[in-house]
Amino acid sequence: MPQGQLKSRVKTARGRRATVGKTTTTTGNRHGKIIKQRKGTFEKKPKKTAAVVARATSAAITREVNAKNELEFSRKATSSGGTFRVLRRPEGVELDPRLRGPKPKKAKPVVKTPGQLQKEKEAAKWSY
């Protein structure tokens, strides 16, 4: 017996965001599974030059605002008798290799065919 066409069921919207008369559709192949919320931002680099420039200026403004906020909070903290320090690595100072974080994965050994081994052997024989 052939399977019928997968049709979406129409459900009425409920909850805070529901507006009168609005309906939402669910896909037919979901079979009651819950939609997982994707967390985090999907930040993609802009392609158009105007958007690239706008993004660069926005990043510069953000850096300036962050620096100003850090300065203001450190002033408030020190004026009341406490201390507030933003810890950063000084320019040009390398971290200890043990403190850098996880090491990169080791490369898997390359398996060579007998033909490749023979070519390498021939090349090594004639190299000076």
From TrEMBL:
Residues 20-29 have a biased composition (Low complexity). It comes from the Eukaryota. Pfam families: DUF2462 (PF09495). Residues 1-29, 76-128 are annotated as: Disordered. Residues 88-99, 118-128 have a biased composition (Basic and acidic residues). Residues 8-19, 100-109 have a biased composition (Basic residues). This is Unnamed product. It comes from Ostreococcus tauri.
